[in-house]
Amino acid sequence: MRILVTNDDGVFSEGLKCLAQAMTEIAEVVVVAPDREQSASGHSLTLHRPLRMRRLREHWYSVDGTPTDCVNMAVQGVLKEAPPDLVVSGINYGVNMGDDVTYSGTVSAAFEANMHQLPAVAFSQEVGEGFDFERSASFARELVEVLTREDLPQDLLLNVNFPAERCRGIRWTRLGKRYYQQTVVEKLDPMGRKYYWIAGTPRWESQSGTDHEAVTEGFASVTPLHLDLTDYRSLEESAPLRDRLEHLELR
Ligand code: MN
Fold it and tell me: Could you give the CA distance from residue 111 to residue 98 in angstroms, rounded to a whole number?
């Protein structure tokens, strides 16, 4: 088995090192990761400048681009003749849950893998008391071992979040909902000009069955995701709106 490992915290991050190490115990591992932190880069693809790939050591490469670039460079480049069976991303420093998955470079790398017909798992670790990347990496290995015994669909995407402390078990979850209380901070620079900083404290809606609830209660959360963003409920239920739009005579 061959596993491609990537992340958005950068090729020198501890979470990547621990995950790659754990995967080498069960598979042949190739690492292609951004040369610096690319957190919150989302599903961004670099099209307007050239990309460079550096070989750091055997099976380890860095790319001066996003996680999505890395998956492309790996699949179309170093792994072209020997495609991976699975792509794993992480372990991210900090959770990627609920609405935040669309910002996440960690999760987007997994989405990109799916676009290349490759099953993928994104791993993130809550920051807090008891934080331990090595323990999470070991759980990640156990989880991937289970997956490798299955016949995985090409669009399998599991978003895994580990609680900071040792997890009490695994829960199969859906995405939670969070709101930011404050989003843009306005300040003045030394020249008296305004600058802005996007920040804020996340506030989660308490809902049962969500990733947030699982991690809050000390469980590892596993959320199956899908790249198809179609709202199938509206597709079926918004008949009046559909009718108005489909009968709109465009001038
Ligand atoms: Mn990150």
Answer: 15
